[in-house]
Amino acid sequence: MRTRLGAFATLALVVALAGCGGITGTSSLGYAEAPASLEPNSPTLAAKDIAFTKAQLDVAADTPFILVFENRDGVSHNVSIYPDGAATTKLFDGVLFAGPATRWYPVPALAAGTYVFRCDLHPNMTGTLRVVIRWAARG
């Protein structure tokens, strides 16, 4: 019984620290530091004055990517991805964090199409994510 309680307490502590930013590195919520394998052409987005700095991002279809998100405000922001403007079904949920700070969000592969990204605390902060098929160059 004590082993289970100890394991549960340890798990609770890890979850609490992760939520507070006390643990760095990879997680499903985002990287607190730039990953070593960051692509030079990773999409970037910033929040400034309770607005996104870009209204549209383009990424390759069927390919996971890392979204570099810089929060330049002193309030919390995140980026979540939805299939449409109704924002009822979340396809990706980025961690909320106060700025100024940067997070590197690992986003799973998405099918070709047009999606909506937004800050969940500030629903007026929205943009369009175009997921496009990229053709390989023939040589």
Characterization of the model:
The protein has 139 residues and is an alpha+beta fold. It has one domain: Sandwich (Immunoglobulin-like), CATH 2.60.40. Helices cover 13% and strands 32% of the residues. The protein has one helix at residues 2-19; strands spanning 44-47, 56-60, 65-71, 76-77, 80-82, 92-93, 97-98, 101-107, 113-118, 126-132. A 5-stranded mixed sheet has the order 2-10-9-5-6, with no helix packed on it. A 3-stranded mixed sheet has the order 1-3-8, with no helix packed on it. Strand 9 and strand 10 form a beta hairpin. The longest helix has 18 residues, at 2-19. The chain is globular. Mean pLDDT is 81; it is low at 1-28.
Distance between the termini: 65 Å
The structural class is alpha+beta
Helix content bin: 10-25%
CATH hierarchy, class: Mainly Beta
The CATH architecture term is Sandwich
Number of domains: 1
Average residue-wise pLDDT: 81
Report the principal-axis shape.
Answer: globular
